[in-house]
Design a protein that fits this description.
One of its GO terms (molecular function) is oxidoreductase activity. Its cofactor is FAD. By secondary structure, the protein is of the alpha/beta class. The chain has two domains: about 1-250 and about 400-460, FAD/NAD(P)-binding domain; about 250-395, Succinate dehydrogenase/fumarate reductase flavoprotein, catalytic domain (Flavocytochrome C3, Chain A, domain 1), CATH 3.90.700. About 30% of the residues lie in helices and about 20% in strands. The chain has helices spanning about 25-35, 65-70, 75-85, 95-115, 145-155, 210-215, 230-240, 265-270, 290-300, 310-315, 320-330, 340-345, 350-365, 440-460, and strands spanning about 1-5, 15-20, 40-45, 60, 120, 135, 160, 165-175, 175-185, 190-200, 220-225, 245, 250-255, 275, 305-310, 330-335, 385-395, 400, 410, 415-420. The strands form four sheets. Strands 1, 2, 3, 7, 8, 9, 10, 19 and 20 form a nine-stranded mixed sheet that branches. Strands 11, 13, 14, 15, 16 and 17 form a six-stranded mixed sheet that branches.
Length: about 475
């Protein structure tokens, strides 16, 4: 990734607003900039818009929405902000947290009203750390549907998406971005001038060297994000003298079906399930969250664990397309007895039965185990049982470029780069410095809320070509 002066560069075309990346952040930014009256061009390295969004469950946390009100759910931006800060031990910037918590609900209602995205709120289970049921998703509860619907909305708005084009160089002039250079698969190069540039190309999860540098505990883990997340925004930002923060922050996940590579919803745990290692024993407090559980699972023999749940929980999980895919692929093991389940998973029968008995006794007594997990008000597991072998994975990084209230990238001295914006994983999010600070949905929160903020601000700019 290069940053070069624009002196002597002849540009092939010029656009008012350019967006690099066609995941949720970039597509939302493009829609917002277009609505602000700007002509927009989206650049995407893949053949079609996908990104890490397509690999997610597509769930976006938002407080005080009309869908919550219709379901009789009380919530507010202040409560959401408090949950984010509590999960991340007050590490995130409180102003950014408040900004995103207040912006994401209106952003979802805008996407629904203006672009037809049929959101609904999940009411039958709650993710760890959230004080209210505030996860919103589309009918399939999949990130694929989210990015596909956003891409269709962008196309319907007449916004061009230039696919199979990789930006490798930014050009600067007088402290601002003047344009960029992109390369096609056949080696052809085009230079595009722009009035404003939105970096929506996510973080560095696909860059093994950067992961080893900033998140060494997951250096050898399965990467479940998009391989195109090579840290382009971070590297460009550093070359421009931009401020960065919380580069060790990341979202892991301790529930990816192994060896199938399919995400398994954490409802399998929060609704009363538990995880055991190859010895049939529990090894951690699973209720803390799926992000921090990734490293816990990877520390077990073979880097895998087994999540044990039941048919009732499977019914809840089945609302997610990923879970249905896992069932179709044979990743979900079924058994009428715990002994049969142990045999099918090659786990010690006595140990697994003893672990189940211990968990169910804690549920009956409302007790807390030696790891710190409380089982008060957690439903019992009943036959027929279900289980899935899982591994830990790195999903995406949460640190990145520091931005201001309008998503403009800031220099190390705190001054904004006037026409450079960052959203989603390209910007420093609200998860702090480690996996434990990640509150479910923080990634798509930054993509949707910050994407709209960046697009609105970029679209409102009016640059005159030199």
């Amino acid at each position: 990734m290069r940053v070069d002066p624009a002196d002597g560069i002849v540009f092939d075309i010029e656009v008012p607003v350019a967006v690099i990346g066609a995941g949720a952040a970039g597509l939302v930014a493009a829609l917002a900039a277009h609505e602000a009256g700007a002509e927009v061009l989206v650049i995407e390295r893949d053949p079609v818009p996908r990104g890490s969004t397509a690999l997610s469950a597509g769930l976006i946390p938002a407080p005080g929405t009309r869908w919550q009100r219709e379901a009789g759910l009380g919530d507010s931006p202040d409560l959401f902000a408090a949950d984010i800060m509590a999960k991340a031990h007050d590490e995130p910037d409180p102003a950014l947290v408040a900004r995103l918590a207040g912006a994401v609900g209106p952003a979802l209602e805008w996407l629904s009203d203006r672009h037809g995205l049929p959101f609904s709120v999940i009411t039958d289970f709650r993710y760890p750390g959230h004080s209210a049921n505030r996860m919103h998703g589309l009918p399939s509860r999949s990130g694929e549907e989210l990015v596909d619907r956003l891409a269709r909305a962008v196309e319907a708005a007449g916004i061009p998406i230039l696919c199979e084009a990789r930006v490798d160089t930014l050009y600067t002039e007088a402290g601002a971005i003047r344009g960029f250079s992109l390369v096609r698969p056949d080696g052809a190069r085009e230079r595009v001038a722009c009035g404003a540039l939105v970096l929506a190309c996510n973080g560095y999860g696909g860059n093994k060297a950067l992961v080893a540098q900033h998140v060494p505990e997951l250096a050898g883990a399965l990467y479940f994000g998009h391989e195109g997340n090579q840290g382009d925004a971070l590297l460009w930002g550093e070359a421009l003298g931009a401020a960065t923060r919380h580069l060790s922050g990341h979202q892991g996940h301790g529930s990816v079906a192994h060896p199938h590579g399919i995400l398994i919803t954490w409802a399998t745990v929060t609704e009363g399930g538990f995880q055991v290692n190859g010895d049939g024993r529990r090894f951690s407090d699973e209720s803390r969250g799926y992000s921090e559980q990734a490293a816990e699972v990877l520390r077990q023999p073979g880097g895998t664990a087994v999540t044990v749940f039941d048919a009732r929980i499977a019914d809840i999980a089945r609302q997610f397309e990923d879970f249905r895919k896992a069932e179709s692929a044979g990743a979900i093991v079924e058994a009428d007895t715990i002994e049969e389940l142990a045999a099918r998973l090659h786990l010690p029968e006595a140990a697994l039965a003893e672990t189940l008995a211990e968990v169910e006794a804690l549920k009956r007594d409302g007790g807390r185990d030696g790891f710190g997990r409380t089982f008060a008000d957690v439903p019992a597991l009943n036959p027929p049982y279900r289980a899935v072998r899982v591994t830990g994975a790195l999903f995406h990084t949460q640190g990145g470029l520091v931005v201001d209230d309008d998503a403009r990238v800031l220099t190390q001295g705190g001054a904004p780069i006037p026409n450079l914006f960052a959203a989603g994983g390209a910007a420093c999010g609200v998860s702090g410095t480690g996996p434990g600070g990640y509150l479910s949905g923080n990634g798509l929160l930054a993509a949707v809320a910050l994407g709209r903020i960046a697009g609105q601000a970029a679209g409102a700019m009016r640059f005159v070509s030199p």
